[in-house]
Task: structure prediction
Amino acid sequence: MVKPMIILFLLGALQGAVGWIMVASGLTGDAIYVKPAKLALHFIFAMGLLCYTFWFALSLLVPPSQRQTNKGIAKWIIASLSVLLLQLIYGAFMAGHKAATSAPTWPDINGDMVPPNMWRSEEGLLNLIDNRITIHFIHRGLAYLLLFMVLYFSWRLLKMQTGKLLSAIKFLPAILVLLQVVLGIFSVLNSVKIIPNQWGIFEWMAQLHQLVAMFLLLALIGVYYLVRSGKEEGNG
Ligand code: HEM
Result:
């Protein structure tokens, strides 16, 4: 266990360093919030640490007999994890920019499905990380894409003969992604009720939305752990 312990220690130290970089970005001039890009960096590093810890725990706790290689589903989960990574970054942009109130409508974004003001020419590529409406559009679009991908591989899992552990968790990603989309929608719609310095319905929704995102990530990792191809398996 020496190697994983060293990696865990280093990831923990890195997280502390990135945490400070993020906090420092909110201590400049008269800033009262941290920079969204640095919030995103801190959040993603935290997720990396969480995933590594979980993977390490799985490698200790899951008996090899519970693993059932399915390369097709494993590839879909990797693709879903890639989209989720981007989605988590955009979630942090949403939170960091306090973007919810700039388009508190659903399914449209302030009356449009494709808003006209997503590309301010003077900002160029910065629109992708600074323009609240562009961030809304990308965060919502990625959510629908992820929903489709997760439901698709869950349907394939449904048709697959699965062992005890996989049967117990195989629908978690589908349940969590559906819940996550609903919480996102409720967050957007309830953002009109935000009262500064008060904890209300929006704050509850947004916190749950962040928590469920982490559980969704762990659920994808858990299912991937069970279906990924490995040297020791041959029952695919
Ligand atoms: C599977 C789909 C989704 C995932 C994984 C996801 C993930 C996240 C995460 C992780 C955050 C918070 C990041 C942080 O606090 O640092 C966030 C924020 C947010 N998301 Fe999503 N999201 C999803 C779908 C949606 C949808 C469909 C909507 C709305 C239609 C939405 C609206 C929001 C809003 C308004 C915030 C900002 C909340 C705040 O200000 O604290 N999300 N998202």
